[in-house]
Amino acid sequence: MTPDELAQAGFISARSITAAPRYAEGHLYVHLTATGALRMFVPFDATREVELSTGHLLHPDVLYRGSVRDAVALVQLAQHWSES
C-alpha cells in the first residue's frame, strides 16, 4: 500500500507515535471513525503483512493481519470494523 492509497482509504499518517517499539519498523496510519480509531501498520519490509488494530497502542487488539491488495479492499476492511 502506498501513502496515496492509504489517504484514499481515509487513513492519515501517525508519525508522532511510531516511536512505540511495536511500530518502529514501519509506518503507522490512523483512520478515525464514529466508533473510535483504527490503526494500520505498514512494515518497511514488504514481505511482512499489514496490521489493522484498535485499542491500546502498546497492547493493541489486532483486528486483521494480512495482505491488502488495494485501497478499495482497505476501505472495505475499515468500514467492516468501524461498523462492528
Walk me through this protein's architecture.
It is built from two helices and five strands; from the N terminus they run H-E-E-E-E-E-H. Strand 4 (50-55) and strand 5 (60-66) form a beta hairpin. It is 23% helix and 37% strand. The N and C termini lie far apart (24 Å). The protein has one domain (3-68). The protein is globular. By secondary structure, it is α+β, with helices and mostly antiparallel strands.
Question: What brief labels describe this structure?
Answer:
single chain, five-stranded antiparallel sheet, 2 helices
What is this structure, in a nutshell?
With 84 residues, the protein is α+β, with helices and mostly antiparallel strands.
Give the radius of gyration.
12 Å
Helix content estimate: 10-25%
Tally of distinct domains: 1
Mean pLDDT: 80
Sheet of most strands: 5 strands, antiparallel
Oligomer state equals single chain
Structural class: alpha+beta
Number of strands: 5
Instruction: Give the overall shape.
Output: globular
Q: What percentage of amino acids are in beta strands? A: 35-45%
Please trace the helix and strand order, writing H or E for each element. HEEEEEH
- Total number of helices: 2
End-to-end Cα distance: 24 Å
Major sheet: arrangement of strands = 1-2-3-4-5
Unreliable stretches covering 5 or more consecutive residues: none
